[in-house]
Amino acid sequence: MKNIKLFSLAILALGLLASCSSVRVVADYDQKVDFQTYDTFAFYKTGIDRAQISDLDKKRILRAIDAEMSARGFTKSQEPDLLVSIFTKEREEVDVFNNNIGWGWGWGGFYNPWIWGPGWGWGGGNMVSTRTEGSLYIDLIDAKSKELVWQGRGVGTLNNIKNIEKKEKRIREFVSEILEEYPPANRVAAN
User: Fold this and answer.
1) What does pLDDT average to over the chain?
2) Domain extent listing, the chain
């Protein structure tokens, strides 16, 4: 019985850790666009200025996008093929786990049911946690037509990270996983 409880607790902890670290990504694109024609990019200041995040986080996101686009063979240009814009959304998530495993005082326990004292056992109640789930959208806009040709969205947990290095790493992770979907598998326009 003790092993089952410990195993259940370990699985719960692993599930929480996995849900906190992963970024769920969805991408959409215009199927009539030939993505091989794009070689250069620039940031679309008007769109970026509207993003509802701190200027420091905007800089972090833009640096991460710049690095990812450069790694994919794109160059920054004053006359770009693509304009890059971002916007963000966030919402507070509340998770309630009713696992009936808990810590407390009472009679009994795993080792001797006749002893009064602290111990793990069933009937511990609910566990409640809150987290901020954020979405980062990266839009790629055709510079000539001013039309959206590709959009990637990453959704994941954005805990209030006090450690700046961890925050930078989390932002790079978001951007990298989103841009992993670009270019679409169908790079050449469908005719």
Assistant:
1) 78
2) 23-98+128-179
